[in-house]
Amino acid sequence: MTDSAAQNPGGEIVTTVAGGTGHIELNRPKALNALTMDMVHAIDAALRAWENDDAVTRVLITSASPKAFCAGGDIRAIRDQVVAGEDFTHFFRDEYAMNQRLADFPKPVIALIDGVNMGGGVGVSIHGSHRVVSEKAMIAMPEVAIGFLPDVGATYLLGRLPKGVGELMGMTAARMGAGDALAVGLATHFVPSSAMPNVKEGLLAGEDLDAVLARFGDTFPAAPLPLDEVAEVFGRDSVTEILAGLAATSGTWADTAREQLTTACPTSVFVTFDLIQQSRGRTLAQCLADEAVVGARLVRRPDFVEGIRAVLVDKTRDPQFSPATISDVEDHEIEAILAG
Question: In which element (H, E) is residue 46 found?
Fold first, then answer.
C-alpha cells in the first residue's frame, strides 16, 4: 500500500495512511467526538484493513477537536432508543468488538490525548500500546452519574490500576489529570499540548516512534492524588467499608469523592464495585461480555433515563434515582443485576 488520500474527509472519522502510519482522526468536534454507530464501524473497519497490511506498521489515533479526544459514546441516542422501546444492544455489541480488536491489535497503537477523554473515548485509547497525554488531558469514567457502569472494557482496566484507584474512578467518576494518569498507568507518555502536532507530523512522516516521543516528551507533571490514602480508603472489601473510610478522611481528593457520590446512582455504585472486583480474575473479553449483560440490565432501569435527563438533557444535575441513597440499596437487587 502506498500513502493514501484521506478516506471520507468530511466524515466523523477520517482515515489516511502515511509514513507507514494508519491514521484515524476523530472528526466530530461540535459533539466533542461522542461516538456514533457509524464512527464505531469506521474505526473497526480501519483496524481490520490494517492489521494484516505490511505497509502499515502502526496506528495513530487523534482528534480534530481542540477541547476533547472523545467525550464518550453518543449516550443520548441510546436513551432515545430506550424511550422509544427500540433495540439498543447492537451499539454496545459493535463498540465492544471494536474495543477488543484495538486491544488485540498486533502493531503499536498510539493515542494522542490532548483534552477530555471519557467513557467510550477511553475504549478507543487506553487499550492501545501508547497513551500519550498532554497537560490538557482529563480522563474519567463518569457512567455512575447516569445510572450506568464503566464499560468499553473499563472494568478490566480499572481492576488493574494501583489498589483502590479503579474503585475511586469507577464509583465516583473521579477525573485523572495527566500526572495522575501517568502515575497509575493509564497513560504511558507525556508530551506538552504545544508539541502534539509535532508528534503527529513526525509519525506521519515515517519517523521512529520512540525517537519522536523522546524528542517531544517532557518531564511528567505532578501527580496530586495521594495513592496511599486512596488505597487505604477505596481498597476496602465493600462499598459500606469504603464509605466509612471516606467519611473519616480529609483532603481535597476525599472532599471531591464525597461530593461526586452524592449525585451518583446508588445502584450503579454497587454494581461498579462488584464488577471491578470480579474483573481481576477475568480476561478483557470476559469483562466486555459481563459489561454487555449487566449494562443492558442497567439501561432498562428507570435510573438510566433519569440520569441522562439530569446530566445531558436538562443539565440540572438533580437526578432522582431509585433507590435514592446507598443505604437504601438491597443486596438482592444487585445480585439480580449481576446474575450470570
Answer: helix 37-50
- End-to-end CA distance of the chain, in Å? 45
Helix (H) or strand (E) holding 198: helix 196-204
CA dihedral 113, 117, 120, 126 (to 10 degrees): 50
Which architecture characterizes domain 4-338 according to CATH?
Alpha-Beta Complex (3.90)
**Residue 185 annotated to the active site:** no
β-strand partners of 117? 70, 139
Mind listing the pLDDT tens digit for each residue in 240-284? 999 999 999 999 999 999 999 999 999 999 999 999 999 999 999
Kindly report the number of other CB atoms within 10 A of residue 33's CB atom. 30
> 114 an active-site residue?
no
* Residue 120 bears catalytic tag: yes
Residue 104 annotated to the active site: no
Domain ranges of the chain: 4-338
Catalytic member of 25, 74, 151, 180: 151
- Per residue in 201-247, pLDDT (tens digit) is 999 999 999 999 999 999 999 999 999 999 999 999 999 999 999 99
Closest CA to 159 of 253, 289, 337, 278: 278
